[in-house]
Amino acid sequence: MYNELKLFLEKRLEGIYNNSREHSDENLLKYYSDQWHDYTMAMKTINHIFEYLNRNWIKREVSEGRTYIYDVYNLSLIIWKEKVFFNMKDLLIKCLLHLIEKQRHGEQIPEELVKNVIDSYTLLGEEKVDENNSKNPDIPKGVSSFKIYEIYYEKPFIEATEKFYKYESQKFINENSIVDYMKKKIRVPLNVTVRSEQHAENEETRKAIENDRSFLIQAAIVRIMKTRKTLKHVALMDEVISQLKNRFKPCVADIKKNIDYLLDKEYIERKEGEKDTYNYLA
């Protein structure tokens, strides 16, 4: 039964990937986001149906050292990574960074779509890898965990952000005196300076930085809660600040705003009877 389910999911996801070739740019992100949402919702139901298998045969197989056997829900995520994500990752990050750059230039973008795709990176989380059985060349040999978000979103996002602000600062220097530049420079997450000649440009830059920081704060909260499962409000705030301190120091109000966002999106919930404690929702 386990192998039949695995083969069924592999065939289904191969079809999803093949159909993705008909889409590009923003439409590709929407296709990926819609398919991811439908798939994860369906797999939560299927995981419940296979609860007996999870609690008995799978549990026994794992206890006997068969590390290539997973509970049904985690199996579904691993197959998604291999059949969909790893095949689409280059196009996904290209489309994401393109939209984020458009936003930095003041254009309206579908922010909810961007967040949904990035959330999928975070929720895929850390993949437990059996290096003797993995067929994916992207997974480094000799490591036991594989961080999807950090490698495939955070790293290229930071590189693109640094490149963008370096370009903006150089453009300002070329168009103005160094004195004007020193008067107008501001702090940003990567310790680079940006152009801000007029009020409108100041506002545009401020919004771009706020959006960049919100993405990082939300990702940090989800990573922390996924690991800790239950955490008090003060402890969560401290851990978020600790994780992000090398990039920027998030203020308490911004962390609280992003906690509220994740509560609304049901990634976390308040623990019943303890309003200052949060539970992670898978």
Overview in brief:
The chain is mainly alpha-helical. Helices cover 69% and strands 7% of the residues. Strand 4 (268-271) and strand 5 form a beta hairpin.
Task: Give a topology summary.
Blueprint: H1 2-20, H2 25-49, H3 51-63, H4 72-104, H5 111-124, E1 126-128, E2 145-147, H6 148-175, H7 178-184, H8 199-228, E3 230-232, H9 233-244, H10 252-264, E4 268-271, E5 274-280
Antiparallel strand pairs: 1-2, 3-5, 4-5
Helix pairs in contact: 1-4, 2-4, 2-5, 4-6, 5-6, 5-8, 8-9, 8-10
Shape: globular
Mean pLDDT: 80
N/C terminus separation: 24 Å
CATH superfamily of the largest domain: Cullin Repeats
What is the helical fraction, as a range of percent?
A: 55-70%
Low confidence ranges: 129-146, 185-201
Q: Could you name the CATH topology of the largest domain?
A: 5 helical Cullin repeat like
CATH class of the largest domain: Mainly Alpha
| Spatial extent as radius of gyration | 21 Å
Describe this structure in words.
The protein has 282 residues and is mainly alpha-helical. The chain folds into 2 domains: 1-129, 5 helical Cullin repeat like, CATH 1.20.1310.10; 208-280, Arc Repressor Mutant, subunit A (Orthogonal Bundle). The chain has 10 helices and 5 strands; from the N terminus they run H-H-H-H-H-E-E-H-H-H-E-H-H-E-E. It has helices spanning 2-20, 25-49, 51-63, 72-104, 111-124, 148-175, 178-184, 199-228, 233-244, 252-264; strands spanning 126-128, 145-147, 230-232, 268-271, 274-280. The strands form 2 sheets. Strands 3-5-4 form a 3-stranded antiparallel β-sheet. It has a two-stranded antiparallel ribbon with strand order 1-2. Helix 4 runs parallel beside helix 6 (148-175). Mean pLDDT is 80; it is low at 129-146 and 185-201.
